[in-house]
């Protein structure tokens, strides 16, 4: 279930209730925020945008605190409709082709 992303389907209710977007930085729990040490003023800009079902960090081959922050900040500063469509396209292919294959394809280009 996790591999295909089916476990994300309940998040659609949050999108329909306008609490989330399809694209944006992933929502974090307070425990995640503390664990990542994203509690200072410097990180406040991340909380000014709606969280999303999928974001740039989820399409990155590198899973690290610094990379997640860099990609979230990049999306906040440079996100637009075209980027959202690219992220949605790539994320929608994951259940069919697998996350590893999509990430490798994105980062080969």
Explain what this protein looks like in three dimensions.
- With 109 residues, the protein is mostly helical.
- It has helices at 11-16, 30-36, 65-78, 81-97, 99-108; strands spanning 21-23, 52-54.
- The chain has one domain (6-108).
- It is built from five helices and two strands.
- The longest helix is centred in the last third of the chain and has 17 residues, at 81-97.
- The model has no long low-confidence stretch (mean pLDDT 86).
- The total tally of domains equals 1
What structural class should be given to the helix and strand makeup?
A: mainly alpha
Number of helices: 5
Helical proportion, percent range: 40-55%
Please provide the count of β strands. Answer: 2
> Termini, distance in Å?
28 Å
Strand content: 5-15%
* Global geometry: globular
Major β-sheet strand ordering: 1-2
Rg on CA atoms, Å:
14 Å
> Taking all residues together, what is the mean pLDDT?
86
Structural descriptors:
109 residues; mainly alpha; two-stranded parallel ribbon; 5 helices; 6% strand; globular
Give the arrangement of secondary structure elements:
Blueprint (H helix, E strand, L loop, with lengths): L10 H6 L4 E3 L6 H7 L15 E3 L10 H14 L2 H17 L1 H10 L1
Helix pairs in contact: 4-5
Task: Give a quick summary of the entry.
The protein has 109 residues and is mainly alpha-helical. 50% of the residues lie in helices and 6% in strands.
């Amino acid at each position: 279930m996790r591999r295909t992303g089916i476990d994300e389907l309940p998040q659609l209710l949050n999108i329909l209730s306008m609490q989330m977007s399809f694209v944006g930085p992933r929502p974090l729990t307070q425990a995640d925020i503390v664990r990542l040490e994203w509690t200072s003023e410097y990180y406040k800009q991340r909380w000014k945008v709606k969280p999303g079902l999928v974001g740039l960090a989820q399409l990155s081959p590198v899973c690290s605190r610094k990379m997640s922050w860099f990609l979230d900040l990049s999306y906040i500063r440079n996100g637009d409709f075209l980027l959202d469509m690219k992220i949605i396209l790539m994320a929608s292919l994951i259940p069919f082709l697998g996350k590893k294959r999509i990430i490798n394809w994105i980062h080969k280009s």
